[in-house]
């Protein structure tokens, strides 16, 4: 064996070390690099929506590490009904959390908390054993319309609105309770508890009935000045404090989950669950629209225009709501029933050929429809559309409202109708903004979000009709992010809710196009005047439709 006097290296694979012997050198032992374990704080944001539970895992910097969207059906067995099964929602929530945590494979102690957002206005009747006597009656249920109308036009209706900040409408548990007490008295008497879907889910997990100020605020029975149930509203509803959950702040933490559910979810039973708030206020937080004058405009299935103030504010004309978010943070605004759901109606009922074409071309039908609409000038050549296909909330608060085209002539095409529908949705949001301005002043800036934000055409329409710059935040699932941010604040992981500005990412800003101003400035006043003039006939046409819907349903049963 010949040795190289300068350098000879023998290499031995000797686990766990690799030993190198070097001639004319000292013995060196190199240990393989150890895998560094990096611990991170995570928070789950759980958004219980109208048709699905969206669950998002965020780290301390607001970065997304997991996402789940678990749906459930909306039951509409009779006219005006809109219900959901509490067990299906509970399963969707459970499945979403379980799936995300299984895939994330977090280290013990890394999940710091779970924070909730929830759709407003749901109502479930529970018996003595906390078992549901009803499905979850959602905000979209209009069966209380008669009682809502009676209360709205009574002196007590305006008084209750001024106390609670919640406009009188069949969406609210207040009017639902009046309807149930009058039309289903036996069922009403059976009930021991009256709760919403979030309260039911948390009871299942923890065995206690708690309700946050924000969700309670949306019942129409919560006094926004003393943060307690409102005596006058409770008397009209026919319920007592003892039949409602205990009220807590939106940062309240629940611990000590039932072991059976902790094992199913894969969560330590002592992990804090932050009760959170309602979805509208949390959407503002999730797009960083929490400073005075910063307005959030959302168009998803429905839509809303909202701004945060430091104290409760109501409208002398009862056109906007005032909902609690957190200490010294109140969200004033107006929701609309008719957002993306109207565009879906256009796709399915007016544009079936275009839908087939889009499927054959393997493109989104909505993209094709917006391309068609973009070829029509602003204002759709004088064609107006009133988007009240499902009644309407703000600013008219009329469950009887119905949709219509106005101004049709022989030159108008389906493309004009598509454009008019998109513009009509935004016109309606603009009327909400006008009402909001009377209460809180002109907005300093606008943040827009929701499914519509994927459409460049719709974003530009919003910008031109509002005649203001519109910023589109990059934040992912803004409502879940709002819940997670509130959770981080409750847990002490961030110092202030304003830290959400570090989470939303960059924004795209759209600027108004002056060439479209003249058309919109001329048409919007016509839209507003027509909307007011149609209101007296909404009830008449709605009564006619309901009567014939019931007759058709009865005929089908007999057949």
Automatic annotation (TrEMBL):
<dbReference type="InterPro" id="IPR018483">
    <property type="entry name" value="Carb_kinase_FGGY_CS"/>
</dbReference>
<dbReference type="InterPro" id="IPR000577">
    <property type="entry name" value="Carb_kinase_FGGY"/>
</dbReference>
<comment type="similarity">
    <text>Belongs to the FGGY kinase family.</text>
</comment>
<dbReference type="GO" id="GO:0046316">
    <property type="term" value="F:gluconokinase activity"/>
</dbReference>
<protein>
    <submittedName>
        <fullName>Gluconokinase</fullName>
    </submittedName>
</protein>
<keyword id="KW-0808">Transferase</keyword>
<dbReference type="GO" id="GO:0019521">
    <property type="term" value="P:D-gluconate metabolic process"/>
</dbReference>
<dbReference type="Pfam" id="PF02782">
    <property type="entry name" value="FGGY_C"/>
</dbReference>
<dbReference type="InterPro" id="IPR043129">
    <property type="entry name" value="ATPase_NBD"/>
</dbReference>
<feature type="domain" description="Carbohydrate kinase FGGY C-terminal">
    <location>
        <begin position="296"/>
        <end position="490"/>
    </location>
</feature>
<dbReference type="InterPro" id="IPR050406">
    <property type="entry name" value="FGGY_Carb_Kinase"/>
</dbReference>
<dbReference type="InterPro" id="IPR018484">
    <property type="entry name" value="FGGY_N"/>
</dbReference>
<dbReference type="InterPro" id="IPR006002">
    <property type="entry name" value="Gluconate_kinase"/>
</dbReference>
<dbReference type="Pfam" id="PF00370">
    <property type="entry name" value="FGGY_N"/>
</dbReference>
<feature type="domain" description="Carbohydrate kinase FGGY N-terminal">
    <location>
        <begin position="42"/>
        <end position="286"/>
    </location>
</feature>
<keyword id="KW-0418">Kinase</keyword>
<dbReference type="InterPro" id="IPR018485">
    <property type="entry name" value="FGGY_C"/>
</dbReference>
């Amino acid at each position: 064996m010949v040795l190289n006097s300068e350098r000879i290296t023998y290499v031995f694979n000797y686990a766990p070390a690799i030993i190198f012997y070097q001639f004319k050198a000292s013995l060196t032992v190199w240990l393989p690099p150890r895998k560094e374990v990096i611990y991170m704080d995570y928070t789950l944001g759980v958004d219980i929506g109208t048709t699905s539970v969206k669950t998002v895992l965020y780290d301390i910097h607001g970065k997304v590490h997991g996402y789940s969207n678990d749906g459930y059906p909306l039951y509409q067995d009779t006219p005006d009904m809109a219900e959901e099964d509490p067990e299906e929602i509970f399963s969707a929530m459970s499945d979403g959390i379980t799936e995300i945590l299984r895939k994330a494979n977090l280290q013990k102690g890394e999940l710091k908390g779970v924070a909730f957002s929830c759709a407003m206005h749901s109502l479930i009747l529970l018996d003595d054993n906390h078992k549901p006597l009803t499905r979850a009656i959602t905000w979209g249920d209009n069966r209380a319309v008669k009682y809502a109308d009676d209360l709205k036009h009574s002196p007590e209706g305006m008084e209750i609105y001024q106390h609670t900040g919640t406009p009188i409408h069949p969406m609210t548990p207040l009017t639902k309770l009046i309807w149930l007490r009058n039309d289903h008295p036996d069922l009403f008497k059976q009930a021991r508890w009256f709760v919403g879907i979030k309260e039911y889910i948390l009871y299942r997990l923890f065995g206690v009935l708690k309700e946050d100020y924000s969700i309670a605020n949306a019942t129409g029975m919560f006094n926004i000045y003393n943060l307690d149930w409102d005596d006058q509203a409770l008397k009209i509803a026919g319920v007592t404090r003892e039949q409602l959950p205990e009220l807590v702040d939106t940062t309240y933490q629940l611990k000590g989950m039932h072991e059976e559910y902790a094992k199913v979810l894969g969560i330590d039973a002592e992990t804090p669950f932050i009760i959170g708030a309602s979805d509208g206020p949390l959407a503002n937080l999730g797009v960083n629209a929490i400073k005075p004058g910063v307005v959030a405009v959302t168009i998803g299935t429905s839509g809303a225009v909202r701004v945060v103030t430091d104290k409760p504010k109501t409208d002398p004309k009862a056109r906007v709501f005032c909902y609690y978010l957190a200490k010294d943070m109140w969200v004033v605004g107006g929701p609309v029933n008719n957002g993306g759901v109207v565009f879906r109606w256009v796709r399915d009922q007016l544009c079936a050929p275009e839908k087939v074409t889009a499927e054959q071309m393997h493109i989104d039908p909505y993209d094709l429809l917006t391309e068609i609409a973009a070829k029509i000038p602003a204002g759709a050549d004088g064609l107006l559309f009133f988007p009240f296909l499902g009644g309407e909330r703000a600013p008219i608060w009329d469950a009887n409202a119905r949709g219509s085209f106005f101004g049709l002539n022989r030159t108008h095409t389906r493309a004009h109708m598509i454009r008019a529908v998109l513009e009509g949705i935004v016109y309606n949001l603009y009327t909400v903004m006008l009402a909001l301005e009377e209460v809180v002043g002109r907005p300093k800036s606008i943040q827009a979000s929701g499914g519509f934000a994927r459409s460049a055409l719709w974003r530009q329409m919003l910008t031109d009709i509002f005649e203001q710059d519109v910023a589109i935040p990059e934040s992912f699932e803004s409502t879940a992010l709002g819940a997670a941010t509130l959770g981080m604040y409750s847990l002490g992981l961030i110092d202030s809710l304003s830290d959400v500005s570090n989470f939303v990412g960059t924004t795209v800003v759209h600027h108004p196009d002056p060439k479209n101003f003249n058309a919109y400035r001329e048409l919007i006043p016509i839209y507003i005047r027509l909307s007011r003039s149609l209101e007296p006939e909404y009830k008449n046409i709605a009564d006619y439709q309901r009567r014939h819907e019931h007759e058709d349903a009865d005929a089908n049963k007999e057949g």
